[in-house]
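Q&A log
Question type: sequence-to-structure
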Amino acid sequence: MTPSGAPLADVMPGVNGSDLFHVTGAAAIIAAVTTLAGIACLKALAGRPLKVQVLLVVAVTLVTSLASCSAVAIMMIGDSTDREIILEFLSVAGLAGIIVAIFLARTFSKASQTLLGAVEDVGDSGVYLPPDVTLPAELAGLSDGLAEAHERLNKSRARERALEASRRELVAWVSHDLRTPLAGLRAMAEALEDEVVIEPGEVRHYHSQLRVEADRLAMMIDDLFELSKIHAGTLRLAPRLVVLEDLISDVIASAEPVARAKGIRLGGSSVRGMPVLIDTAEMGRAVRNLVSNALRHTRPGGIIEVLGEIQSGMATVSVSDECGGIPADDLPRVFDVAFRGESARTPDPSGAAGGAGLGLSIARGIVEAHSGQIGVRNTGPGCQFVIKLPLAQAGAPSPRLGISDPFPATHR
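Response status: OK
Response body:
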């Protein structure tokens, strides 16, 4: 019986069930043999062009069809003319399949060669330009991936160049700024040793200057050590929950005597309720560096204001001064290692040597280690430095504190 319920003899006259079983078995054996042979050939041709493998798949399909149909025709069709017609039709269909397969293989091969040419051009131009042709979906995805990877590589190279430039600046700073106080110490020590200076008043002055230069040298070495820890990613923080307004008050109180001595009015205010998870010693150092920078560049009679407030759900500390402003071209470099920009800002009226250009870099490293942000902008008669820190949520776990890229090319 057939699946429709009709007797097999009514559907296929002259064919009984055993003949159909033998035909089906023969076709299955032929298909299995050709399939296994095709798989073996594909493995052997794994390194050959795709068009060869496509043609092999079509050839296996055609051979399987011809062999199976030939077996069926021999066993079930008695008229040789009918068998020949069937085989001719199958041959024509197979030929059409081969032609389409050749066209597909050539199209894919041409697209892959175009993509390979675009990749090879990167060695000459240094830029990957996606082919201006329609690619198959797989190759188009590969091209997009190559373009994205090349863009990330270019950004990485830019960061490496910025790293190298910052290292060179740091080496130049060490060779110049550390040598200056050492030369002063040596000259004054030799003057005292050779008794070039013998007047008691001058001797006391030299002793005082020796102490000042030694303190300055110690401060510079301390800054260098702190910066090296930031750049090496070894800065260890001990965060605890504090209210930021208390830290601001402490910084203002410690800087007030220096401001008074320079004739600068230092003021500040802060809103209540700014809980933050910070290392108070390190973050206090960052804010003090901003205030010291403002004191260094503000004229006598000027005003420095330190404000603490909440903006966009973040605790912010702003230090506004009257430094005369920073040229727009220098703004992205303010936090770079050893950047001073003295020519563009109001110099220290006391004539004392300025900082070594590490204070702002250290402040940036500390703030970013706390998952915060730091930036600068020109405003009014001077500029404003702003630190933004995430507010601590009640019952929230301590955030993971770490070091971000220590040498970004620009920063806002």
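Response note: The chain has a mean pLDDT of 76.
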